[in-house]
Amino acid sequence: MKDYNISKGKHFYTIGLSYKKADAEIRGHFSLDQTSRTALLKKAKEEGIEGLLVTSTCNRTELYGFADHPFQLIKLLCDHTRGSIEAFEKVAYIYKSKEAITHMFRVGTGLDSQILGDFEIISQIKKAFYESREQGLTNPFFERLVNAVIQASKRIKNETDISSGATSVSFASVQYIMDAFEDPSQKNILLFGTGKIGRNTCENLVKHTKKNRITLINRTKDKAELVGGKFDLRVRDFSGLQEEVRNTDILIVATGAQQPTITPELIDTQRDLLILDLSIPKNVSADVTSLPNVKLIHLDQLSQITNQTLERRRESLPKAEAIMREVEAEFNSWLETRKFAPTIKALKRRLTQYKEAEIDFQRKKITDFNDQQAEIISDRIIQKIMTQFANHLRHQSNSTDESLDLIQKVFQLQESENK
């Protein structure tokens, strides 16, 4: 396996944790909000890290970056979250070089999502890239890699059925409601939180229930009004949260708070109440289950729902993976070319030196020496030699490092390569 250390000797790593080994509580400890992500990126810049992307969703938190050792990235994560290094080590994964690249492709194309075919993560990767670019933490490698992942994601979405039907937790939550109630359109529904997951859930709710039964609340009311205006829904002030909870049958919580906002004290009702917590960290206190009329479902449970839609998506998995591997191979080919480009440029400079010295010698020795013809012939010979070397390096990926070492030794390029 190739070791991609194209950033001045640094190695490319992915470190993180996901739904596969870390439950919602642990993921909540390592989640990063906007403020924390910005602070982490600024600290990374201060520490001399030259390239870094940070993503944090309900299902995973990951850092992609260049470092001498992955511990540099792990410490950055732990210093800016409520997680500890000990807790991280129990559930984490660390990928290096090519494996780190493959992991980003799998994540960005929805093949590693908790619900297969969930493409919401690609927008998070785009956002992470823009945030890093603002802090001066991107480079040509990251730009090319992110663009390649976006390309693979688009192709899979357009060329396969892996995203057929509605996707993600927002779909699973509405499906759960449809399965739990004989006539959900007769139930009062309160959606608390109108961020991305809340908006997507709201859109699915509108398709399957009555609008006049849905109420929206957000800490910042104008954000809720934007969503409510789009779907013609009722909006209440945050101060009316407890009153609305008392009168609802289904409470969907999708806020970005770092601590639980729904507690037993808030639920002063005798009617049966279904609560769906779509938040990371959890925004509903586990204590609410002590109330006899309350049923609490978290997004991890929702994500375990299997249905015909997901089965159809799995049938598209081989084709989706083939597309991903194709685009990934193109990226790796570019990376290999980038790897040997400095040596090829140095070789061309060395051959040009040989050419100029020889033409100067022959000019003094031969009467009526034709400089123009000599330049044309020698440049063509140099170009043929360069093409031969480049083709060899491009197609002998298993021995590229050895070939580069040999070229540098034979032509004594060690010094000129860095010029």
Q: Can you describe what's shown?
A:
It is a single chain. With 419 residues, the protein is α/β, with parallel strands linked by helices. The protein folds into three domains: 11-164, Glutamyl-tRNA reductase, N-terminal domain (Beta Polymerase, domain 2), CATH 3.30.460.30; 168-306, Rossmann fold; 337-418, no CATH class. It has 16 helices and ten strands. It has helices spanning 24-29, 34-46, 71-79, 85-91, 98-108, 120-134, 140-159, 168-180, 196-208, 221-231, 241-246, 299-302, 308-315, 317-365, 371-395, 400-410; strands at residues 11-18, 52-56, 60-67, 93-96, 189-192, 214-217, 234-236, 250-253, 273-277, 294-298. Strands 7-6-5-8-9-10 form a six-stranded parallel β-sheet. A hairpin with a 3-residue loop joins strand 2 and strand 3 (60-67). Helix 6 packs antiparallel against helix 7 (140-159). The longest helix is centred in the last third of the chain and has 49 residues, at 317-365. It is elongated and about 110 Å long. The two termini are 29 Å apart. Residues 1-5 and 415-419 have low confidence and may be disordered.
